[in-house]
Structure formats: structure tokens, C-alpha cells
């Protein structure tokens, strides 16, 4: 009987020791796991701090230009017949492989202008090209191709030219507004999207800007009510599109 009790006590002590050892091992594993999570979080925070220390960012400068009536065209155009935006890397690190893309619904503009473009008064267009009444053929693929910059350092400024198709459409539609055939709301908007990499070759979320020109012009009319001329200023104020997270 004594031997049985002794065996029981030995078995009990052994079971308790095993349980304690197992609990200790479990606690040690959980502590190690916790330490790993903390270390991983610290590494992620350090990596994010490194990114912030060299993060590029872009700002598009507002601009303005003179807008005048061209009798030969039959509608308005910009004084230098060229419109561009200046972009600056206002971040604290270089931007690599900067890709600037225009998004413009020219098909929508065609449909709006179509009733007033009888006998190809303003332009002649096909599926992939357009010819305005004073210019050679413009291919949409070339006109709206993305502009690439291999590197834009912090503080560096670059210029992005507006597509020629957009410039002409803007002039035509503003003229139709002055004639009372369209409304200001019909004047086309255009979007510029800027995508780029940081110094670690990581993709930064692209920035998009919606551009709706504000045109302030004074118009002169002849005795028959027809437009004889106009001139004024066009203001370009890019508005960043904030995407919901």
C-alpha cells in the first residue's frame, strides 16, 4: 500500500513538473512571438521613416495666358498658341520614372460640337486623328502620349505641354459660348495624372489634378450681331483630386 502511494506521488509530481514545463515553454513562445511582433513593428516604422525622409511630392503651379480671337481660324486661341503647366517636386527626395498622363474625353467634345461643325467648319476627324482647319493632321496617340522624366530631383521644375487637340477644342467651345450656342459648363475639363517611384524604386500612389480653365474675355460685335473679335485672360488652376481611402 505504501509503495502504491509512493508511486502515485511520483507520478503526480512528474505530471505537475511536465505541466509547469509546458506552461513555461508556452509562455516563452508567446513572449518570443510578442517580441517578434514588436521588432517587426519597429522595423516597419523605421522603414516608413526612411521613406518619409526621401519622399517626393508634386505641385502644379497655377498659370494664365492671353486669349484672343483669330479671324483666320474663326475662333479664339492663346496668344503664343502654346499652353503648358509647370510642375515642381516639392518633396524632400528625388522622384524616379515620373510619368505624366493626360485624360481628356475628346469624343464627348466632338459630340457637343458636331451640330455646329457642318461642312467641317472647325475640323475634320476620323477614328484616330483630327485635322483642324489651319493645321496638319494630328494623331491622338501622339498628341496624348505620356510624358516621361527619368528623374526629377527635389526642388526641380519641369514643364508639361497641353495636347494640341485640347487647346483647339477649348478655343472652339469658348467661341460657341460667346455666340450663345453653348454654356460655360460645356467647356472641357482635362485631368493630369502623375505617377512616380521613390529612391527605393517603390511606387508612390499617383496624384491626379482636374483642370477647368476660367476664361475672362470681352467680346465685340458688329452691327449685324456677329462677333468681330475678343480678347482676355485664361486662368489655369489645377485642383488635386483627393481619392477616398
Structural class: alpha+beta
What is the CA-CA span between the terminal residues? 75 Å
Our Rg estimate from Cα atoms comes to 33 Å
Number of helices: 4
Shape: elongated
Portion in beta strands:
35-45%
Give a short account of the largest sheet.
5 strands, antiparallel
Tally of structural domains: 2
Work out the helicity level.
25-40%
Strand ordering within the main sheet: 9-5-11-12-15
Which parts are unreliable, with pLDDT below 50 for 5 consecutive residues or more? none
> What is the average per-residue confidence, as pLDDT, rounded to a whole number?
84
Order of helices and strands: HEEEEEHEEEHEEHEEEEE
Number of strands: 15
Brief descriptors of the model:
alpha+beta, elongated, 32% helix, 15 strands, 245 residues, five-stranded antiparallel beta sheet
What does this structure look like?
- The protein has 245 residues and is an alpha+beta fold.
- It has 2 domains: 1-53; 59-241, no CATH class.
- Helix content is 32%, strand content 37%.
- The chain contains 4 helices and 15 strands.
- The chain has helices spanning 2-53, 106-113, 140-143, 164-178, and strands at 58-60, 63-70, 75-78, 84-89, 95-103, 123-125, 129-132, 137-139, 147-152, 157-161, 190-197, 203-211, 214-221, 227-236, 238-241.
- The strands form 4 sheets. It has a 5-stranded antiparallel beta sheet with strand order 9-5-11-12-15, with no helix packed on it. The chain has a 4-stranded antiparallel beta sheet with strand order 3-2-14-13, with helices on one face.
- Strand 7 and strand 8 form a beta hairpin.
- The longest helix has 52 residues, at 2-53.
- It is elongated, with a radius of gyration of 33 Å.
Amino acid at each position: 500500500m505504501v509503495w502504491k502511494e509512493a508511486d502515485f506521488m511520483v507520478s503526480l509530481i512528474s505530471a505537475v513538473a511536465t505541466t509547469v514545463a509546458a506552461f513555461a515553454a508556452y509562455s516563452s513562445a508567446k513572449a518570443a512571438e510578442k517580441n517578434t511582433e514588436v521588432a517587426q513593428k519597429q522595423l516597419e516604422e523605421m522603414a516608413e521613416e526612411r521613406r518619409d525622409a526621401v519622399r517626393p511630392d508634386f505641385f502644379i503651379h497655377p498659370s494664365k495666358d492671353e486669349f484672343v480671337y483669330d479671324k483666320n481660324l474663326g475662333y479664339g486661341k492663346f496668344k503664343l498658341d502654346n499652353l503648358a503647366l509647370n510642375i515642381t517636386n516639392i518633396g524632400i527626395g528625388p522622384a524616379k520614372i515620373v510619368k505624366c498622363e493626360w485624360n481628356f474625353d475628346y469624343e464627348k467634345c466632338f459630340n457637343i460640337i458636331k451640330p455646329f461643325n457642318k461642312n467641317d467648319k472647325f475640323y475634320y476627324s476620323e477614328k484616330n486623328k483630327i485635322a483642324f482647319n489651319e493645321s496638319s493632321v494630328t494623331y491622338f496617340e501622339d498628341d496624348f502620349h505620356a510624358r516621361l522624366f527619368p528623374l526629377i530631383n527635389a526642388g526641380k521644375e519641369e514643364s508639361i505641354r497641353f495636347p494640341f487637340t485640347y487647346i483647339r477644342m477649348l478655343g472652339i467651345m469658348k467661341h460657341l459660348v460667346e455666340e450663345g450656342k453653348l454654356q460655360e459648363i460645356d467647356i472641357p475639363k482635362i485631368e493630369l495624372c502623375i505617377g512616380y517611384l521613390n529612391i527605393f524604386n517603390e511606387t508612390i500612389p499617383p496624384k491626379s489634378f482636374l483642370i477647368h480653365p476660367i476664361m475672362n474675355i470681352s467680346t465685340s460685335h458688329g452691327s449685324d450681331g456677329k462677333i468681330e473679335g475678343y480678347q482676355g485672360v485664361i486662368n489655369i488652376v489645377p485642383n488635386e483630386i483627393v481619392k477616398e481611402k
